[in-house]
Amino acid sequence: RSKAIEVKPEDISVTYKDVGGADEAIAELQEIIQFLKAPEQFAQLGGHIPKGVLLVGPPGTGKTLLAKATAGEAKVAFFETSGSEFVEMFVGVGAARVRDLFEQARRAAPAIVFIDEIDAIGQSRGGVMRLGSNDEREQTLNQLLAEIDGFKTDASAPVIIMAATNRPEVLDPALLRAGRFDRQIAIGNPDLIGRVEILRIHSKRVKLAADFDIERAARMTAGFSGADLANAMNEAALLAARHKAVAVTLNDFEVAIERVVAGSEKKSRVMN
Ligand code: ATP
After folding, report:
1. Mean pLDDT of all residues in the chain?
2. Which stretches make up the AAA+ ATPase domain (predicted)?
3. Which atom of ligand 1 is nearest to the CA of 201?
4. Of 115, 206, 220, 223, which is most buried, counting CB atoms within 10 Å of its CB?
5. What residues flank ligand 1, with Cβ below 6 Å?
6. Each residue of 69-114: pLDDT tens digit?
7. C-beta pairs of 4-8 under 8 Å, 24+ apart in sequence
């Protein structure tokens, strides 16, 4: 069986109002939502039926969040999985999981299937030194391609596949060929306005001091990803709670920023 997590439409708690600084990506995804909401009408109007969307960007920029929020907007089922879950030792296991995933999705259609780190399956063939045997990897990738090609223009059971990667250059060109991941959406770290939006979203859950200046907080966090901003806001709330304050101040946030920066430096040291 596939290890994908299925979330039913009524259980998806996020929509685009939970995603900050991603207006362009959201605009590009409107077509997908129109298709999922009214596939027959979309087909009748002669719209090019979308199949796959590849979200490209560094870690923590909200790719998973954006995919889930797209399902939330369209009110369709969401299947979440990661490419690494298909990388197996034994030939055929990964391919069977892919088949199973799409079977599940078709049964639950309309649906979005999200595959994080698709490069774990979709790496260009012919390289050396990879995890899993080459035969296994090849079969898994072939099965994925077959599934994408298979669910053509089926307006009665629409399934859209969204995938994410931060290494688009290693993907097998077959995945990017027309009719597969025919749309690529780049997502980068947020600019100042984006950071203001993201901080606003994540400050809803905390009590900010009356004089907490969100724009100043955004200016202090140039280069932060959405995930970094969420962490900083969370850390600031923990600090405030620790000194038994009634609200989070900009000073708490400044200390929190340092912790988030220190934390990610530690992480990258471990990885290097
Ligand atoms: P990875 O590539 O590491 O899986 P990702 O790009 O999928 O990362 P998410 O897992 O979606 O990033 O982001 C982690 C968390 O950071 C989100 O659940 C959310 O709380 C916060 N976050 C990230 N980006 C945004 C954003 N644009 N707006 C609001 N919150 C965000």
Report:
1. 89
2. 49-191
3. 29
4. 115
5. 19-22, 59-65, 116, 164, 198, 201, 226-227, 230
6. 999 999 999 999 998 888 776 777 888 999 999 999 999 999 999 9
7. 4/79, 4/80, 4/81, 4/85, 4/101, 4/104, 4/113, 5/79, 5/80, 5/81, 6/77, 6/78, 6/79, 6/104, 6/108, 7/68, 7/71, 7/77, 7/78, 7/79, 7/80, 8/77, 8/108
